[in-house]
Amino acid sequence: MTDTTLDMSLKGTMTKPKERSEFAHTIDGTVGKPFLDGKDTKFHCRGVNVFYNGTKQAIFDTSVDIGKNEVIAMIGPSGCGKSTFLRCLNRMNDTIDGCLVTGTINLDGEDIHAKAQDPVLLRARVGMVFQKPNPFPKSIYDNVAYGPRLHGLAANRAELDEIVESSLRKAGLFNEVKDRLQAPGTGLSGGQQQRLCIARTIAVSPEVILMDEPTSALDPIATATIEELIDELRQSFTICIVTHSMQQAARISQRTAYFHLGYLVEVNDTKTVFTNPQHQLTENYITGRFG
Amino acid sequence: MSTLGILLTLTVLAAFSYYIGRKRSLALATPVKRGGNNLHSLPSYYGYLVMIWVLIPALLVFALWSALEKPLLTSTMISHLPAEIQNKSPDEISLTTNRVLSLAADDAARTSAEPVMQAAAEDYRQMQQTSSMIKTLLVLALAIAGGFIGWRYIKPETRARNQVERVVQFIMITCASIAILTTVGIVFSVLFESIRFFGHVNIFDFLFGTHWSPQTALRADQAGSSGAFGAIPLFVGTLLISFIALLIAVPLGLMSAIYLSEYASTTMRAYAKPAMEILAGIPTVVYGFFAALTVAPFIRDLGSMVGLSVASESALAAGIVMGVMIIPFMSSLSDDVINAVPQSMRDGSYGLGATKSETIKQVLLPAALPGIVGAFLLAASRAIGETMIVVMAAGLMANLTVNPLDAVTTITVQIVTLLKGDQEFDSAKTLAAFALGLSLFIVTLILNVVALHIVRKYREQYD
Amino acid sequence: MSSTTTEKVKATLAKRYAREKRFRAYGFISIALSILFLAILLLDIFSKGLPAFTSTYIKLDVVLDAPTLGLETNPSQEQLKVANYNKAIQTSLETMFPGVEDRKQKKALKALVSDDAQYSLRDQVMANPSLIGTTQSLWLLADDDIDVFHKGGIDRATPEADRRIKDFQLVWLDKLEAEERIESQFNTNFFTRGDSREPEQAGILSALIGSFYTMLVTLLLSFPIGVAAAIYLEEFAPKNNFWVDLIEVNINNLAAVPSIVFGLLGLAVFIQFFGTPRSAPLTGGLVMTLLVLPTIIIASRAALRAVPPSIREGALGLGASKTQAVFQNVLPLAMPGILTGAIIGMAHALGETAPLLMIGMVAFIMDVPNGVTSPAAALPVQIFLWSDSPERAFIERTSAAIIVLLAFLILMNLLAVILRKKFERRW
Q1: Are B408 and B401 in contact (CB under 8 A)?
Q2: So what's the ipTM on this one?
Q3: B124-142, pLDDT tens digit by residue?
Q4: Which CATH number fits domain C205-423: 1.10.10.10, 1.50.10.10, 3.40.50.300, 1.10.3720.10?
Q5: Chains touching chain C at 3 or more Cβ pairs under 8 angstroms?
């Protein structure tokens, strides 16, 4: 099965950009440019399948590369598996009972499912920001210091203070909260809370940040702030963002992956995906025929 | 007629009234062939309406009469007693009353009693018979009259459904109000007796006295008996045993809940949860038996092996078993509380690379803290009010000590000891039990109300 | 920067995983301890209680001749009733063990069989007077000490002074054993008799019936009242109304009030004020009703809440009144949940002891109660009473009564589980 999968996905990569009349109509591999051919690859995923409770398959044969310091957006209709795929990348699916992930996912060439790999270390390297802002019921300071404290990243209080401050600065929140670092994190506004969660993630200095619809619970102004922030963060982190907003994907990402019913249908430069999609389903989605 | 007879007759009357009510509504309705049904409600509602007319007044009178019969008859009987008895102290009058009542119920004993008593008992019995006869007649007459009124009342335009529904709703409100009545009943029953008790014994001596020995104060006229009602040893004993119980129940219950909700596999949960439920369902009298016959001797033997002298009714044994009894309670409360913490909190922590235990200790427990405090308070209330385990496994002697290897006694043990036998209702000894009951009720009430409030606020936070 | 993170995290991992393991172990130990305790408790009770389901019988050749029984020829039933059966039993024992002269030993010899043996002999003779003049081989109920010994509860190695069965009795028992005149039979007395001072004659029937009547009163009162209250509070009660809130606070609080306080209420209000009979299932049932009402109301409300609003709306949309919608559409759907709650409440009431002590249901009751107003014990109270008795044989019977009580509770809970499984609906 893996061989044929690989075959199919290769077929997908080799497909040249087609004319509109030559749209792919069936899903028999990913069209577009899912692979980076070894250039600055951060994540290297081949033949990833995800099953729930042994029977229900949520992700089918997904193969894709994610490059260093790029923002890759994952789009698609609800329930298409984009969030599930994102959660594979730092093994968050391990925490769900009855969830099984097969296939290969390499981070910097190491298999993240290997025995020697450690989910704790992996999640320190691959941080995650969630759909709903979920600050812990602690002070702002303790929220940001949570990760560094867990992982022993700061040798002393001064270092910890520094990490907290720089993380809050990077998340663009420091000036707003510097006078009330000991106030509870849950007292902030929605947008601030989400930036606090981003700061919390940055504080661990991960290599990759996964974002699962980080702005869906926020108002447009807070969303804009977060989007600017993502653009700045791209300098130091690889960012995978799941979004239900195509405009957002177009604004902030370099590459875009389109998922449909558990299949990765198309991956390409964001511009190409939105201007010249190669698959009928992608075309339908971005033109708003469904989704 | 006996109570059962009256109730059966009323049932038959009710069934009959439903039948005639329904029948009459149909008879009064315009027949179908002449334009159809002009009844306001379905025919059965007319039946119910007549039934209500039959039952409600009759049952109300019946219940009132039955409830007030005894107190009224007794006071009448007392007023019929010769003056020299009536002039005695209230305590002695109540003694006499009890004796007359028991004589009235027992023919054999009556013949051997002194004439005054015999006459009073005979008097009481006659009144009782008359009362019972009037009651029967009145109730049945009311039922029949009600049925007749109801029957006459039926017309096609009678809004039978609305009226029946109003009555049903009123009945439901009454049922719901029983909760308030119960609380009022509890407050009154313990409060009044306690006030009488504090007439005998100074309230400060009761609350702050360190010597408890109710047996010495059997006679109310005994001098210097007030010093024997110092409840401090009982309070300390109760707290000591509750403390031991909570020391066991809180960590074990909490950790069990954490393990079951965060770690256990589905299979393990499928077995462990019912086991916990069995533990919760075992009656406390069984725990008490186990504590007294197995755990206490075991601890005593264990103590003598290491050279400690352990009382055979040690606080430790009762506390340990009570702790085990509370484990499932604490565990299920904590389980609810932990499950109320949103999954997003866990995700956030795992996403930062926390291990499970780090997530639990540093995110889940702080987030669930108010709920856990509430659960703790409820468990404490449960421990303080627990009766059978301590009655069977703790001591009777009021020792003022905090040594868990000694025997101590508790509030509940003393309440049971003071009230278990057949004793006069008015002795200071009996009243002391109500004073203890009052303190128990107040303490647990405060714990419950605070705990329930905390838990409710906590739930609202995550709803 | 990232690589330093990796290094630092790696450095902490071993320690953190050790902590993780420890924490997990604590959790596991907590559960294991609870279950271990449950197992010990059940094992202890069962090992103590199972022997009580058999009792020891001794076979005697009883010579039923008229002179021994003190009877004339052709005795009337009345004469048969007062005849000296004791003497007949004693004679047969003396024939079997001749040479017992010492008075103490003679008494001990007579005490091999229970006091009750003469009555069972009497009943047999009265049923069949032709037995007189014959010699009958009869199995007679043994005394409780003999019973305990025969079941292995007394160790021969104990010094004689500390032993309930003395050396000379051991000789008799060995002889009985050798002649196969002693054996265990199913203990029917335990299920067909009331309380007794003699352990071998004590049974749980009167307590069972007492419990039954108490539960009957409780069920008849608490179920309709509880359901009516729940329906009102869940479906009809106005929101944010002071009285309704007060009722809710009261119900939640009453669910946590110590049961003994309900006993005080029963004593002061029911017995003293309303004059309900002491020690009677009626009073017990009234107290239990108040005790389980909060449980039933809370469970019934949860069951009603679980019925989706669409059911109500559907009925209302067809022109049903609110009352009709609730009683004809919502209530039947909520019934399994309500019944489950009621059964669990009743199971709770069945095991409850403390309030019954307050209202005098601790009296020594030999007779089977014949109504809700006659004095009665209840099963848990019987357990409490027996557990106080010093006789070894009562420990056994206490445990056996506990087994019976637990069996009832398990049955009730099984019923609740089955009900829940069978009618469980996911909306």
Answers
A1: yes
A2: 0.90
A3: 888 888 888 898 999 999 9
A4: 1.10.3720.10
A5: A, B
